[in-house]
Amino acid sequence: MIDLSGSPAPWPDEATRLWADRVGRAARQSDLWTVPAPQGDEVLREVLAAQLALPVEQLTITASLRAAALTYARRFGHVALERPTYPGVVPVLAGAGAQVTRASWDELLKGAFGGEPWDTVLWFTSPGRNPDGRTLTGQERSRIAELAAEGHRVVVNETYAWFCGQAGTPAGADSVGTLHKLRGVGARLGWMAGPGCFEEAFPELLGTPPSPVWQRAWGLFLRDGGLDLLRDGLLAQVDIAKDAFRDRLASAHGIEFPAFDGPNALIPLDPRASEAPTPTAEQLEESALAALHEEGFKAVAARHFDAERPALRATFFGVGAAEAIRFADAVARSPRTALRLRCQGHT
Ligand SMILES: Cc1ncc(COP(=O)(O)O)c(C=O)c1O
């Protein structure tokens, strides 16, 4: 089975060896076991700040992206959440007491989301939004800066900055993110950065982030060559697989698949290819998933991300160029995908 459903790829042995060595070093540093570090371990903060172009004094280590979401939901009554988006934030925001409404980037940028500015968080993911690989343009970033200047709290989930390069957080917005996509949910580390983040997140920071020993191990690993190993391995592999997928669609099938940032892309589906006269998104997506599954590919239904149209999400983690080419052939041949229609200007 070729898995495009989004599980991060395992690390090469060299990266695992370096990581294990740095866990040992961190464990032998006695102050890490006894001195609290509520804003996070200094080595990890420095390395993340440098890599993500964030001010180190504002960078705060959290237990995960979803842990950072808890803080906003506790402090603000209303979160205007982009759609589509990573769905894992929804139960966290709502469960922590915020009213969550959904809006497209266009609606958010136009100010069409309701709620008082002082009580409202606007939530974007960029660069390389999950699930569609979209990145804020220069104009959109300027509009975000205006909204922030008008008093809205704007949060940008920059989790995929590792995969796309970093244009810098829009002026006036907070950056949040996670290390989860570099290894898996077991990484259990994230960040928030903004002028008030540390003070606002203090209750969560007292109670939830992983041990400073764990944080230092990650900091040493990333600083001492781990990030370069991941860049040359995991991250480079994503680019190779994406390029192979798009090149194959263009060269062998005459399909121009739009460029997307980061590892995730949406493959649109064609309602006319369904047996049912007026199929639901669920019917279309499930039948396309089942057909791809029979051919040996695993993807994810886009409705889970609140996508506007029926589609499948493919994530190019841990697949080689040959597998990406086979996937391109499968989606091009499939009567269920709408790639050919879109390419001919019908959708
Ligand atoms: C955009 C985005 N943010 C955050 C996460 C999860 O982060 P965490 O496990 O740190 O909450 C994911 C996982 O798929 C994601 O796609």
UniProtKB/TrEMBL annotation:
| Xref: InterPro entries | Aminotransferase_I/II_large, PyrdxlP-dep_Trfase, PyrdxlP-dep_Trfase_major
Domain Aminotransferase class I/classII large per the UniProt entry, residue ranges: 65-185
Protein's recorded name? Aminotransferase class I/classII large domain-containing protein
Source domain of life is: Bacteria
The record ties this protein, via Pfam families, to: Aminotran_1_2
What is the organism lineage in this UniProt record?
A: Bacteria, Bacillati, Actinomycetota, Actinomycetes, Kitasatosporales
